[in-house]
Amino acid sequence: MELRQLKYLVTVVEEASFTHAATKLHVAQPGVSAQVRQLERELGETLLDRSGRGVRPTAAGEAILPYARAALAAVEGARASIDELTGLVRGQVRIGALPSMASIDLPEVLAGFHRRHPDVDISLAEGTAEHLALELHAGRLDLALLGAGVLPPGVATQVVADEALVAAVHPSDPLARRERITAGALRDRPLISLPTGTGLRACADEACAAAGFQPHIALEAGDPHMVTRFAARGLGVALVSESLARAHAPEVSTVTIVRAPRARILLAWRADGPAGPAARALIRHARAALPDLPRSRPNSSHPGQES
Length: 307
Prior knowledge:
Elements: H1 3-15, H2 18-25, H3 29-43, E1 48-49, E2 56-57, H4 59-86, E3 91-97, H5 106-116, E4 120-126, H6 129-137, E5 143-147, E6 155-169, E7 180-181, E8 191-193, H7 199-210, E9 217-220, H8 224-232, E10 237-241, H9 242-247, E11 253-257, E12 262-270, H10 277-289
Parallel strand pairs: 3-4, 3-5, 7-11, 8-9, 8-10
Antiparallel strand pairs: 1-2, 5-12, 6-10, 6-11, 6-12
Helix pairs in contact: 1-2, 1-3, 1-4, 2-3, 5-10
Protein name: LysR substrate-binding domain-containing protein
InterPro entries: LysR_HTH_N (IPR000847), LysR_subst-bd (IPR005119), WH-like_DNA-bd_sf (IPR036388), WH_DNA-bd_sf (IPR036390)
Keywords: DNA-binding, Plasmid, Transcription, Transcription regulation
């Protein structure tokens, strides 16, 4: 029994496919199949059910999987311990991020890490705050930049962006003549927002609920820049962060929403810590490169025209 065979078995189960497993492992598909069959011959049991559309573990396969994963984790832990002892940082780190964050220069953060640790491979995945939190909790991400919301247990955070939720409108929109409005001014307006599960959408829903009405979401888009561009075409009122709205001026006018929830971005990682030195180095670097902001209160009312 070889570690390679165990790794191939675990990867095939996770991907539910020999082809996808081979792609992930960067080896030829026949090689993966041959190694798994060799392992089955050695154990005298069929470990994978190949009869359906997807590959699934048999009862024997389910029985061996915990031991296979434990063996692979032990080897990875041994390598990480030696790397840490010798001061060598290598391996792979996985970071998740929202599709667009106008206030954070993520490429520069990752470039700075790469300059310090050129032997570490960096992978980046995008998704909603809800999805990223689940991936982080499951250990499939080492670090995540996500919107504030309900986080799973065991996740530590640092506030790295804290902005006002604002209304972005076409310059000809009547709201563009105002500096400030209350959320109630949006009651009968078509609104443009990110999908449910994102931090900005949670802020928008909260603001409308506090004003006593259900928002009329006319358009949704997964890209915050697209949300703002819809508003620039006069299709509705975009509810976005202040930095995002300012980035699209003069195509849109920015209107402050008084007493609105804050749009926050959190740097998040597992509190019990990742196993590898590369992931720990990434977390240290990101925490130092990005500001640790205090949590601000909602926008307060100021003298000016409101509705």
